[in-house]
Write the structure tokens for this entry.
Amino acid sequence: MATKRSAEGEEPPVKKARIEPVLQTSQEDQECAVGITVYVSPDLPGFKCTVKQRYTDFLVNEILPTGEVLHLTEIGEKKSKRVKAQPVPESKSVATPKEPELEAEPKIEVESEVETKAEDLQGPEPNGANGAHNSGNITTTENVRSEVKNDNEVAAPDDVAISAENKQSVLTIFGENVTSKLMNLYSAVLKHPQRKARDHNTVKSEMIPDKSVRTDAHKVVRVAFNSKLQSETLQDEPGIIAIKVAPPKGASGARGERNPNGNNAKGQVGWNELGGQYLHFTLYKENKDTMEALSFIASQLKIPAKNFEFAGTKDRRGVTVQKVAVFRVRSGQIAGLNRMARGWRVGGFEYKKHGLALGDLLGNEFALTLRDLTVPGEEGLDLPARLELAKSAVSAAAESFETKGYLNYYGLQRFGSFSTGTHITGLKILQGDLQGAIDNILTYSRDLLPENVDRNGENNKIPTDDIIRADCIRLWREGRLNPAELRDRIPRRFSAESSIMQYLSKKDRKTGRLIQEADWQGALMTIQRGLRLMYVHAYQSLVWNMAAGKRWELYGDKVVEGDLVIVGEKDDRPVVQDEVDEAGEPIIRPSGEDAGIAEDSFTRARPVSKQEAESDKHTIFDIVLPQPGFDVLYPSNAIGDFYKEFMASEQGGGLDPYSMRRSWKDASMSGGYRKMMARPLQGVGWEVIPYGGMEEQLVGTDMDVIQKREREQGQTNGGVGREGVDGNGDVHMESLSEVAGAPAVGKDKLALVLRFQLGSSQYATMALRELTKGGALAYKPEFNTVR
């Protein structure tokens, strides 16, 4: 893919680009390509409609483990109530560190949360006129740095020695040389508490290739050194961990320069009194990715975006509400960002003793508006007759959907948005063709290059981001775009492409030669881990979809000998809890949802005996199918043979389901189990509504409810508005009156409003597919500027 570029100044050779063909494939063709082929009730008439014509037509609210549907009910925060402090029991476990209370931030009143001062959203003030604000004794940078050098040349005094157990943990991971440097650094921190974190040295570890060891290293650093030191894995030096002094968390949060001595501000409440060290809050977002919103919040708090925890990602094109947790951040720091928010809001703050993990939810509630509803036989009928005919068709479909369910397929979004899907990249990785995987990620269409896009022609509505992506990849391959320019130009949501190109472009500072242009694994390792694992998971999903369709074709809803069920689910034993695979991917819940808790208590399956198959002990909703991996059981019937046949085929990549271990851990998948069938957790609510135009909003969002309440109360909130999106995908504000409740002109169209609940990791698009018999066509978001 990448050829060496000259260091002597001559014109760099052009890298051979893989050009992505532009194929106008139908939604049905796309579904067939990834194994989505079967209907549970194929004889039931379907109907046609448009999904997500407006992004407010697709509302998703998480269902908490308690069964409560999560809603954003207020913007910002209410004044926190103190809870009686409880003594924290001592623990001998390394995983539960004994940490001091967080240094305080000034008490913040409710009104100030929305009107956060600009200075609190900027970096710390430099030493100068206001330098005394940071410390009573001003020390010059030159003196500090000379002291740092001396501090790191002496051994740590006995009175700052860490426990023998913790020191041994540090030694085991880092070795004597690095441990000695860390002890000296820790000593310097305690000796000079007023010194800024950036004035201390940074200690680098030796290469640690094992991801699990690096995870332990981060934990040990935090525990052993009482959170005075912090660690991070370097992106440009894979496997190397950098350990530096953690900035005190004072008035400016993560910047921590305003209260270096760590004295609690007057009236400040400690973590234990608040209720725990994890701040949980509700994130409401419109037409944004989960990580897009959280990355902005993280950038303002000066913390890594990976610090935020959530139970599952949500669709970009929609209005979604979900829980998020973050360790040791005060609610005021995040609530104050509402005034800067574009396309998202936060509220519902509470402190808890635990964070969130993938699968920590029962599922999701969907409120969907399906526009342009048409049913067979409506031609020539007037509106009342069409309305009755539509109600009859929807009623029959909803009844079948509730009772018979649908095949629990992985939806199209699992396989990426470009013609060379993520499952193809995953297959390349499993085949060991890492260069091919990178080529697949960096494909683009010539039709998307700026010179080929006619803004006044048929392709004038192509997303600007896609055009920029194609152009950046083209220019980089031709050697006309350096890493700095690439970072500035490529849209943030194409982080995988950006990370790969920047890594492969790294040069030796002395010679100017490329030093890692053929390090394919290193390039893939720069991709955020969740995204990186998505590629292999997509291949697993392809195989699962194919197997599910074959299983239904052979046996239908009949339970047969050799089918798999979860051990303990209907046995006379305790039910096995929900699981995640080694990548944190939700696998299954006994009640029918895929949910996850801990990797080390892996779900086990067993085959159904002939006697069980002939009894009524199990139904089709108990049957699971494996995602291929080295630690799963395959069905002991014809479906088990199908796994071998398909994976060995050209489409399956010539792989062996019984040989799934790889030398690279991220490509070595243990596998998992997923329920073959799914159905709504509760009933299906529906209504057929006449409407006039696309601008008419038929279902209110949580923000609509808040704004309506504020209007009724005669209140205004400058930080709250309704977002829209322009042709470039940029968010802009518009008043609610311009959107909701707009008068309809000639209500001659029909829309179906659906409300139902699905378990975690179940796809609403696949539920709609069964309901409509393929008639629910996805509206292309890039062709629409209406919210």
Q: What stands out?
A: The radius of gyration is 28 Å.
